Amino acid sequence: MPTSSPSAVRLSATAAAALSLALLLPASLAGTAHAAAPGAPPARAVADEDEDPQPPARMSEVGGKLLGSPGTQMKPKSGQKPPELPEDITARSWIVSDAESGKVLAASNAHWKLPPASTLKMLFADTVLPKFPKTKTHKVKASDLEGLGEGSSLVGVKEDQTYSVRDLWRGVFLRSGNDAVHVLAAMNGGKDKTVREMNEQAEKLRAGDTNVVSPDGYDKKGQVSSAYDLTLIARNGMQKADFREYASTARAQFPGEEKKGKKRETYEIQNTNRLLTGDIGLDPYPGIAGVKNGSTSEAGATFTGVAQRGDRVLLVTCMHPDGRQGGLEVYKETARLFDWGFKAADKVEPVGQLVAPAGIGSSGKSGDREDRGKAADRATGGSGEGGEGSGGAGFALAVTAGCLVLVAAVAYAVHRRWPIPELAKLRTLPFVHGTPPGPAGGSASVSLKDSASGSATGADSVAGSGGTDSPKSPDSPGQDGPSDSPGQDGPPGSDPVGARKPD
Description:
Helix content is 29%, strand content 14%. Strands 1, 3, 4, 9, 10, 11 and 13 form a 7-stranded antiparallel sheet that branches. It has helices spanning 6-34, 121-128, 165-175, 178-187, 191-204, 227-237, 241-247, 274-277, 329-344, 369-379, 395-410, 412-417, 448-452, and strands at 72-73, 75-76, 93-98, 103-108, 137-139, 162-164, 251-255, 266-270, 288-296, 300-309, 312-319, 348-349, 352-353, 428-430, 445-447.
């Protein structure tokens, strides 16, 4: 009988041990999983050490000392008992503020620097939008679309096709289209110039937690913002009429590929802001008027929203809720914070302040008479310069201009729940959600008669109108377009909940 060498025996023993371990390991893991208590969430095989990071012990104190402290900040007024803050908020960072006064009603880790995802497109729009008239057209070159990150969300911009600036901004706001961002950045002189100007604008807004590396919000090393900064950016942006128009548009038509000898077709795009459009198990939020959502692998879900109830306008920003709760969690948590804010606003002391842009006003409050006049002029489409905000002056009036149109076109039942005083005065409202196609062109309008039946006049319908999606052209990326970053699902839309995450 042949004999084995000692080394061969040792090798065989090692192989046998490895085989035994391989066979036993799955059973061991399975036993651990089954040991969990009934109803407990499933155990995860590998713990991610970055899964539950802690906020820095010290953060920026811009806007107030309390905002630089980790944890939740809320102060009841003397003799008042405000409603309890929602206990089920999982967002790593959030802030609730009064858009007009700039008072921060409550916050949690407001200055925590986190990846912003596509909410950074608010800063892109606040920086670049005033530079080009919406009717300007641009023929897309191949170089315009270079550098798009793998898995980027796209609206369907095509090389050698011509688009208006309005088309491109709709692609940015509604579909979070990185392709549209890159084309607009190219029109603005290139990505590097645009990034530099965005950082300059952030500095002007005193958004010191923000550092821009990519104008579309795609995950890049060193690209960060905070709930506080995103709120400042949204507040400034929403004082621009065009910004409000795009942010509050629920659905619009986007140009398809132009084919020789044929009329250019369009396809419908829907806003990925689910508090504006709703989703399965999520109703549109009453009074919502924008502004922007986002999601990437590193950022998780992020969202900044503005809503009006009565005469009060609130801004809420949520960053990175627990993704295990589902793709709609960022909207659900934002809605709960809105509900709390509207109930608690008069019963809490501010824990901080949204500061005014550098050189404007003194504190970000209502400002002086000149500031209020300029803001009111911008809100009503007057001749005042629309490029800069006034630190909150006339903000409620500005948002109302966009919000009233949305409310009137959604459903009269919403108006009955919390009437906006100005709504009764505006029997016919300008339809700011785009110009409908037709031989005459021109603007459409929405009246209370239209809104009572839940319908909207014109080609572009808004959330809750009861209209059905128009057929998509073959050129349409559809509602299942890729998301902002690799390794993640697309935005939640009209598809079953859970199939996709926010854009």
